[in-house]
Design goal:
The protein is an alpha+beta fold. It has 3 domains: 245 residues, FAD/NAD(P)-binding domain; 70 residues, Elongation Factor Tu (Ef-tu), domain 3 (Beta Barrel), CATH 2.40.30; 69 residues. Helices cover 33% and strands 25% of the residues. The protein is built from 13 helices and 21 strands. The protein has a 6-stranded antiparallel β-barrel. It binds flavin-adenine dinucleotide. Flavin-adenine dinucleotide (FAD) binds next to helix 1, helix 2 and helix 13. The site of flavin-adenine dinucleotide (FAD) has 37 residues, from helix 1, helix 2 and helix 13.
Amino acid sequence: MITSIIGGGPSGMFLAILVKEARPDFKVRLFERNNRVGKKLLGTGNGRCNYTNIDLRKENFHSENDSFPMEIINKFNNIDAIEKLKQYGIYPTVDDRGRVYPLSLQGSSVLDFLRYKMEKLGVEVILNEKIDKVIKSKEEFILTGSQTYKSDILVVATGGMAMPQSGSDGIGYRIGRELGHKIIEFGPTIVQLESDFRRIKEFKGVRIDTSARLYIDGQIQDEKTGDVLFTDYGLSGPAILDLSRKAIEGLKKSKKVEISINLLALEKEEIYDMILYRAQNLEGIEFEKFFNGIINKKIIQSFKEILLFKSKEKYDIITCNEKIIQEITNLLYDFRLKITGYKGFGNAQSTTGGIDTTEVDFNLESKLVNNLFFIGEVLDVDGDCGGYNLQWAWSSGYVAGNTIINRGR
Ligand SMILES: Cc1cc2nc3c(=O)[nH]c(=O)nc-3n(C[C@H](O)[C@H](O)[C@H](O)COP(=O)(O)OP(=O)(O)OC[C@H]3O[C@@H](n4cnc5c(N)ncnc54)[C@H](O)[C@@H]3O)c2cc1C
């Protein structure tokens, strides 16, 4: 029985290992268009590879077919992934946000073990081979790249569109479509947000470990904690990437999208008390000096302009006046930026949309074409920031792999 896998990302490699391990009698062939497998995996989690999360819920996974992701995840969850990868040599460490990394904190060690395992088991890895066309003829698949290959079972593990420079440029959608599958409209997610705030460039480089809230048409939608990084085009950092999915949904519906940043990472009452204390003790001090030591110097002038714009009061000198204390508190606690756009696939960590999951069964086999499987990001499933996309890669690879090993018995 020949099993061919298109794509040497985490989902494809994991499936190849599972199948070859359980069925040494199978010929397992993995095609990778790059000159090495796992290029994207190396860059995950800032090179540290956040490969799952201790806290795993339904809300962490998204699909048009809402209940579908958990049907798969429940068959192979975060604990299963940690255990299985441990057997392969990858020992976990967990940070204070539940994110799981290899103890070495190096993504390269995860990749090394997957490659080692494939080599040891005898998975045939064919590098520099871009499969461009697939047709199903009678009982077999005919794959065409630089040459033609025949296969009994085909697994499409080509990834989505995020970071196309790593090799996942959406070709899996075309292969799926040509085999009769419907594609849910795709777009970037876990991506930086753009703002048209006039003075944004002055904020560039300011990083705050705080909370960010997403507002759509003035209504709070979500709140995330973590680093917020100001850039010359808008906002980045884990808290923003986490909010990007809902922000993009709002933008696509032409709604007013805003991100509110707590500039001091303190409760509102604490900020009020601090400002009051400073105003009492520093009464009559110039605006710039008052904020020195509280917020980054780079942004003090912009801050003044915003306060002037908001209240039409003069703010050259700080006085101990309740209205002023309140306005400063509000601005520090709820620094709001209008979001006007988002970065593209080149910056994104994942893809929304993809192969319609209503056309695959709960073993990830096509309902339209026998022995055709889809796994990983190519499917219409995406996870939140925090290890959930790699969890999807392991879960989907496992579920399809576990089905394939029972073929021909
Ligand atoms: C910068 C960055 C950081 C990330 N960090 C994290 C993180 O810390 N935690 C987390 O959970 N997720 C993270 N992700 C997301 C995660 O990496 C992906 O969801 C995951 O790699 C998807 O796995 P996959 O196997 O489906 O596809 P991919 O990893 O995209 O692999 C697909 C492979 O298929 C190959 N291929 C494509 N088409 C063909 C073809 N026609 N022929 C041959 N080969 C082909 C590609 O070259 C590629 O190697 C990150 C993503 C990015 C971009």
